[in-house]
Amino acid sequence: MTRADLTPARLPRGFADRGADELAATREMAEAIRRTYELWGFEGIETPFFEYTDALGKFLPDQDRPNAGVFSLKDDDEQWLSLRYDLTAPLARHVAENFQRLAKPYRSYRFGPVFRNEKPGPGRFRQFLQFDADIVGAGSVSADAEMCMMMADTLEAVGVKRGDYVIKVNNRKILDGVMEAIGLGGDDNAGRRLTVLRAIDKLDRLGPEGVRALLGAGRKDDSGDFTKGAGLDDEASSRVLSILRAKAESNLHTARKLFEEFASTEAGQEGARELSAIATLVEQAGYDGRVVIDPSVVRGLEYYTGPVYEAELTFTVSDEKGQPIQFGSVGGGGRYDGLVGRFMAENTPATGFSIGVSRLLAALRALQGPEAPRPLGPVVVLVLDRDQIGRSMAQAATLRAAGISAEVYLGASGMKAQMKYADRRKSPCVVIQGSDERDKSEVTLKDLIAGSAAAAAITDRAEWTESRPAQVTVAEERLVEQVRAILSRHE
């Protein structure tokens, strides 16, 4: 094969490889989320990556083109299949299929990748991880209040301190009241309503003037791409923006202010009453200040029918150039009483939220800064004599039997290269057994972490040779005991 015949190694646009460190950090964070969900009585479920395209719903972008917004293909029976766009629509399908056997209200959580066939950009990928929790079959807003409180507990469980986040709550019925007030009620205006909602949802990123442009004729971004607006006039746009600034000094005061604002619209008043009920429950449960009524919260998907909520990180960190950055929203959700009803005659109330795992992980890493502990790799058993590799394998097996991650060096290089390999593997220590140690049934252990620190203080080769920093020789039968002692120093 000539060089010209080689297939180029290239990553698909909008996708990313994930290394061992990120996988370990994701696994640790996901486990903390799972434990929190289960403390609240939720049970796990896994749905497939693919669903029938029509099961994903008419609420996806560009619904008339199966390959826009979602990645789709035709099965051999001419049925359109799509990679799941989120974890909510597959849950609705699952509940409808298994409705009679599920205990209701049905509390479940799901974790896994979702796929979006959209334009990628910095921090915007076509595949990413979500961790969802939902309650299906509870029509009371007490379920929405509970979801918001669980979101608060979840953020604290993964390491976000109280005061460094806020769970914001609004109600789509409030927004329906806005739509009625500006003449966008009824089925004929569904498309424009969705455009308005998506414009409002960009308030944090674009600011009031950017949202005003999207409410009006449209907006051109920095790349030159133009997004068509909702076509509202200045008066209607101002009415929408004024609602977003209705936040008062307390949750109950905000709900009361919204009730007064929508005295003439039934939907708006109902939404304000529900927010008032949530505010009372939050206060009684001790989550006041952690869960806040905020009229600027929208959530872009059309299927939300009541309370909507968003988890926002409020702390500021510095980027590589020392510039302050905020991560903002790392998750959200809301009530979607009509989604399960798409599959069955009986409508079923539901509410739930989704955590953007990759975004939350990036925020936690930024919060920890450069001092974040690095995950340790396996203990590496060096091989100084190739004809004795079986003995090295036995030592590694002894460590693994004791629950210690260990591997044998399988390359063909000498000791210096093996030590470099162990360092790249982030090994806490190496096991060395040459012929002298073998004759005495001994092993030499070198603590690579402590040794690196000690070596930094040594300036003379003779001192290095004499001190052999962080190195100890013990009887082979004490291998596990001594390795555990080294690991305990670096936990």
UniProtKB/TrEMBL annotation:
Signal peptide location: none
Enzymatic reactions: tRNA(His) + L-histidine + ATP = L-histidyl-tRNA(His) + AMP + diphosphate + H(+)
GO cellular component: cytoplasm
Protein name (record): Histidine--tRNA ligase
Gene Ontology biological process terms from the UniProt entry: histidyl-tRNA aminoacylation
Gene name for this UniProt entry: hisS
Chain sites annotated for binding L-histidine: 86-88, 116, 130, 134, 299, 303-304
Cellular location(s): Cytoplasm
